[in-house]
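Deliverable D5.2: sample structural annotation.
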Amino acid sequence: MRINPNPNASDPALRRLERSESTPAASNSGVMPAAGEDTAQLSFAGGAVSALKSRLASMPEVRQERVQALRQALASGAYRVNSQQLADAVFNDLLGSVRQ
């Protein structure tokens, strides 16, 4: 078995990278990158994700009206727990979907 100390020496992409690292970087003056160089383009989706993240951050973590309604239902005895649904939820949380 032969071990090659430089296994990527014949890789054309690696050679391009090595050449680009040895040349001065292009300025931000609008110069287009040379052929074969990597470029990045940001899409509209990136802005949409940022907008959704900021919208989510402005929402309360706890829905107080829902918590208050559940507290009242518990206090009055009107809240009933379905033991089968509770057991299914526990198993699904711990083990994934067990029942179909």
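Annotation notes: Helices lie at 12-22, 44-58, 64-76, 83-95. The chain has four helices and no strands.
The annotation will be released with the project's public dataset once the embargo ends.
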